[in-house]
Amino acid sequence: MHKIKCFECGSEITDPFLDACPKCGGILTIETDLDAVANLKPKDLREKPLNVWRYAPFLPVKCNVSLLEGGTPLYDCRALSKQLGVKEVYVKYEGANPTGSFKDRGMTVGVSKAIELGCQTVGCASTGNTSASLAAYAAKGGLNCVVLLPSGKVAAGKLAQAMFYGAKVVMVNGNFDDALNVVKSLADERVLYLLNSINPYRPEGQKTLAFEIVDQLNFEVPDRIIIPVGNAANIWAVYKALSEWKALGWIDKMPKLTGIQAEGAAPVAKAFKEGSSDFQPELNPETIATAIRIGNPASGRKALKAIYDTKGYSTTVTDAEILDAQKLLGRKEGVGVEPASAASIAGLVKLRNEGVIDSDERVVCVCTGNVLKDPDTVIKSCGNILNAEPNVTDVKRVIA
Ligand SMILES: *Cc1c(COP(=O)(O)O)cnc(C)c1O
Ligand SMILES: [Zn+2]
């Protein structure tokens, strides 16, 4: 049996509706029952199609709701690797998920759990993608859905998705961290089942992102995985996944987990710079990469453990570096990602220039969300549209 445990004090939690430890307030995590999979072999999994549920033996629920999430491409980015002078660069393209971000991996598991628990209403606070994903999975699962968004700070594509799938969309006059506090209280009052990533089932689904990377590389572990960090559950999920496979002897080393934050929302990167395992919240987080515009990352301490335990790294990138990296990936590799996702590419560029990343490394950048999520930023940052009269001569003139 899988167990719910406090990440901080190790207490076992029996009430599945809690989202924090009743003893110490710590964040929760699932202890995977590795004895139950001790006789399993990678080839047993590989008989199943490549998607989240290939890895069902490592997930703590049975599949009640799925949109066939996961199974996303791992692109071998030769042009990028040549330009940056890094032996191998891969992009794990999470924009190819059903709602266009990796959040779908956590939601298929989280909403399956909600159904198992008999919940009728699910909810979350979100910078956008969590709400888009939850709204879709709630629709598929026949549940009501309430999403709280920071007013005026949600990218158009994400807002459109949450509305489209029929969620009750509530704009709150505050930032993500404020919205999360409200939705936590609603969950305490049992108005809704909380499906933010403090719900320990969400990162369980997100583990499959790392399982797939290793699987797609034929069990040759990359030297480094670079991940954009916002609320910090995803880097933890990647760490947890690979720790489980290492414990089973399926892989023999851990990649250096490298967390990238935007300069204006960087509590984890700042803590890393100081060598600390705890972080100071940023009260006024600001960045163009709205999906990582988070000042008080709920899983920040988990992220720091993931980084230190793997001899990884963390740093910040500026908004300008993010936008440059976004365009670089689009124009060199034909891969379209939203700004937060491009933070991993911007981090690769910066850490290669600083010599932190060696030229002989095999690096995987996780690109978390689709370019269509935030069309306004793209149109602003790419903005030169040519105008012509409707005749051949004039079009030839303007394209010359
Ligand atoms: C949620 C999200 C992130 C941040 O992930 P965390 O688990 O909060 O660190 C990064 N990029 C995109 C596109 C996201 O949707
Ligand atoms: Zn505790």
UniProtKB/TrEMBL annotation:
<feature type="binding site">
    <location>
        <position position="129"/>
    </location>
    <ligand>
        <name>pyridoxal 5'-phosphate</name>
    </ligand>
</feature>
<dbReference type="InterPro" id="IPR000634">
    <property type="entry name" value="Ser/Thr_deHydtase_PyrdxlP-BS"/>
</dbReference>
<dbReference type="Pfam" id="PF00291">
    <property type="entry name" value="PALP"/>
</dbReference>
<keyword id="KW-0663">Pyridoxal phosphate</keyword>
<dbReference type="InterPro" id="IPR050147">
    <property type="entry name" value="Ser/Thr_Dehydratase"/>
</dbReference>
<protein>
    <recommendedName>
        <fullName>Threonine synthase</fullName>
        <ecNumber>4.2.3.1</ecNumber>
    </recommendedName>
</protein>
<dbReference type="GO" id="GO:0003941">
    <property type="term" value="F:L-serine ammonia-lyase activity"/>
</dbReference>
<comment type="function">
    <text>Catalyzes the gamma-elimination of phosphate from L-phosphohomoserine and the beta-addition of water to produce L-threonine.</text>
</comment>
<dbReference type="InterPro" id="IPR004450">
    <property type="entry name" value="Thr_synthase-like"/>
</dbReference>
<dbReference type="InterPro" id="IPR001926">
    <property type="entry name" value="TrpB-like_PALP"/>
</dbReference>
<dbReference type="InterPro" id="IPR026260">
    <property type="entry name" value="Thr_Synthase_bac/arc"/>
</dbReference>
<keyword id="KW-0456">Lyase</keyword>
<keyword id="KW-0791">Threonine biosynthesis</keyword>
<dbReference type="GO" id="GO:0004795">
    <property type="term" value="F:threonine synthase activity"/>
</dbReference>
<dbReference type="GO" id="GO:0006565">
    <property type="term" value="P:L-serine catabolic process"/>
</dbReference>
<dbReference type="GO" id="GO:0004794">
    <property type="term" value="F:threonine deaminase activity"/>
</dbReference>
<dbReference type="GO" id="GO:0009097">
    <property type="term" value="P:isoleucine biosynthetic process"/>
</dbReference>
<feature type="modified residue" description="N6-(pyridoxal phosphate)lysine">
    <location>
        <position position="103"/>
    </location>
</feature>
<comment type="similarity">
    <text>Belongs to the threonine synthase family.</text>
</comment>
<dbReference type="GO" id="GO:0006567">
    <property type="term" value="P:L-threonine catabolic process"/>
</dbReference>
<feature type="binding site">
    <location>
        <begin position="230"/>
        <end position="234"/>
    </location>
    <ligand>
        <name>pyridoxal 5'-phosphate</name>
    </ligand>
</feature>
<dbReference type="GO" id="GO:0030170">
    <property type="term" value="F:pyridoxal phosphate binding"/>
</dbReference>
<dbReference type="GO" id="GO:0009088">
    <property type="term" value="P:threonine biosynthetic process"/>
</dbReference>
<dbReference type="InterPro" id="IPR036052">
    <property type="entry name" value="TrpB-like_PALP_sf"/>
</dbReference>
<keyword id="KW-0028">Amino-acid biosynthesis</keyword>
<feature type="domain" description="Tryptophan synthase beta chain-like PALP">
    <location>
        <begin position="65"/>
        <end position="369"/>
    </location>
</feature>
<feature type="binding site">
    <location>
        <position position="368"/>
    </location>
    <ligand>
        <name>pyridoxal 5'-phosphate</name>
    </ligand>
</feature>
<comment type="pathway">
    <text>Amino-acid biosynthesis; L-threonine biosynthesis; L-threonine from L-aspartate: step 5/5.</text>
</comment>
